[in-house]
Specification:
Layout (H helix, E strand, L loop, with lengths): L14 H13 L1 H14 L5 H13 L6
Helix pairs in contact: 1-2
């Protein structure tokens, strides 16, 4: 959802990478501001209407092999 260009991106299930992002966010005011700006720019992607539409698309997709 946020994309690889999101400053807070970390690989799924990589606890060490998540810890680094969280520590940086705690200690680095400029980094926190960048995260806030990036989240604000993506806010429209996560409205209830957008989430409902995305869920409807997933539910309507045919099941592979089924």
């Amino acid at each position: 959802m946020l994309g690889r260009d999101y400053a807070g991106y970390f690989p799924v299930e990589d606890d060490g990478a998540l810890a680094k992002v969280l520590l940086r966010a705690e200690r680095d005011e400029i980094f926190r501001a960048r995260l806030a700006s990036q989240c604000a720019a993506r806010r429209a992607l996560m409205t209830p209407a957008a989430e409902q539409a995305a869920l409807a698309r997933v539910v309507a997709e045919p099941v592979p092999g089924g």
